[in-house]
Amino acid sequence: MAKTGTNFSCVECGQIYAKWEGRCSQCGNWNSIKQEPELVHERSVRANVAVQSELVSNWDSDAEIRYKSGISEFDRVFGGGIVKGSTVLVAGEPGVGKSTLATQIASHLASTGVKILYASGEETPAQIAGRVRRLTPRSDFAVLSTQDFARLLSELSKDDEGYEFAVVDSLQTFVDSESSLSAYGANQTRVNAQVLSALCKTKGITLMVLGQITKDGSVLGPKAVEHLVDVVAYFERPREGSLRSLEVHKNRFGSTPEFAEFTLSSSGLELPSEELVGANRTGDKTVPGRSYVPISYGSRYRMTEIQALVSPSYDGLAKVYTEGFDLKRLQMLVAILDKEVSLALQSKVVLLQVVGGRTIKDHAGDLAIAAAIVSAATKTPIDVDVCSFGEISLLGEVRPIGDAQARASFAKSRGFKTAVFNALDSSGKDGRCTSVVQALSELGLHRSGLRAIG
């Protein structure tokens, strides 16, 4: 790398600035903007092989090759598998199971005859071999244990090895001795990703890169390299235990967002049982403050349980707390309920929780959240065989949902007898509940003289 001047960049997210600032506008961190040398990517130029322009007609658009991972849900969220020659980023916090996932995929591909290189800057070959034997004892592939970025590039450049698929675990651990950037920083990580991706694309190698998210929630490297890769997937632990979720946020070869869940065991990642991830309806059926909603996660639906608690505020000031739902949107729903149902929530404490550690971003969850709050405020339970969904407007309307019938059918397949919602029928007219008041009435919550208790 050669210096051509200096610039200022955030060491956390990699955002570049013309001058020093106290706070990064991209990630919000204070005192994270440092002066770095501006670099010409000499290594990336040297890594490239000679290429020529070609006509689009020379390429068969139907000849897209995808590697099957051996995990059906993983292949589904990736659009049918990992596209040959693509660069995939799998990010997550330490210990979530990224290395287990990558090893399981590499082992399966190796068993089908794909030439694999597993490069690790964190583990020894013995540690990787031990994990391979535990997951898939009969698999075998090449392992490289180093933090030297030049050594990694040299190994991938060997024509006699003929690598077809490479795993880099993890991106932040590799250091380029020729670079003047701070080792292990976001800028070094971004340059590493750019050089690796360019090399692998010219060599026809499919690249899977693992990226670390720190325990305090900040994203050191993955956010800085998302624009450089073809697929971005986040591997997360929704709650304590063995459940893991994989969410694809970017995919040049498939739809987004897509979502899948797994359980992590000593034998690797497995598909979870419906009882583990589904809504729990085995408890007390007469408890107020509980509702159910079919939430859309990509091309799949998941029954989700909502719990709410409403209690008096001892200082007379309204307080709203939430776990798994946007706070500002919850405050908006509380204000709408105050207007439409007169619950006097301005002097209450409202607490809302999405059970299971998930986060609801689907606005179709508005109606179920409103129902749970009204149920808790009035001490009136909702029938556990009834679910609800729909987006609520500021005017108290329940907006129609385009996939309402699909959600209702899914809820029926999960044992729910009734679904309260608004939809568009085949003639284009609104159907079912068109207002919050009407929907709450069908849920058995809004009656004449109904008021909050306490």
Brief descriptors of the model:
24 strands, 12 helices, 26% helix, Ribosomal Protein S5, domain 2, 28% strand, disordered C terminus, nine-stranded mixed sheet, 454 residues, Rossmann fold, alpha/beta
Q: What is the domain total for the residues?
A: 3
Shape designation: elongated
The tally of strands reads: 24
Please, how many helices? 12
Strand percentage, roughly?
25-35%
Average pLDDT works out at: 83
User: Describe the biggest sheet?
Assistant: 9 strands, mixed
Distance between the termini: 68 Å
CATH class of the largest domain: Alpha Beta
Radius of gyration: 26 Å
Do you know the CATH architecture of the largest domain? 3-Layer(aba) Sandwich
Outline the fold blueprint.
Blueprint: E1 2-10, E2 16-17, E3 33-40, H1 42-47, E4 66-67, H2 72-77, E5 82-83, E6 87-92, H3 98-111, E7 116-120, H4 125-135, E8 142-145, H5 149-157, E9 165-169, H6 186-203, E10 206-212, H7 222-225, E11 231-236, E12 243-251, E13 258-265, E14 268-270, H8 274-277, E15 290-297, E16 300-312, E17 319-323, H9 327-341, E18 348-354, H10 366-378, E19 386-388, E20 391-392, E21 398-399, H11 404-413, E22 418-420, E23 422-424, E24 430-432, H12 436-442
Parallel strand pairs: 6-10, 6-11, 7-8, 7-9, 9-10, 17-18, 19-22
Antiparallel strand pairs: 1-2, 1-3, 4-5, 11-12, 12-13, 13-14, 15-16, 16-18, 20-21, 23-24
Q: Describe it for me?
A:
This protein is an alpha/beta fold and 454 residues long. Helix content is 26%, strand content 28%. The protein has three domains: 1-40; 63-272, Rossmann fold (3-Layer(aba) Sandwich), CATH 3.40.50.300; 290-442, Ribosomal Protein S5, domain 2 (2-Layer Sandwich), CATH 3.30.230.10. It contains twelve helices and 24 strands. The protein is elongated and about 75 Å long.
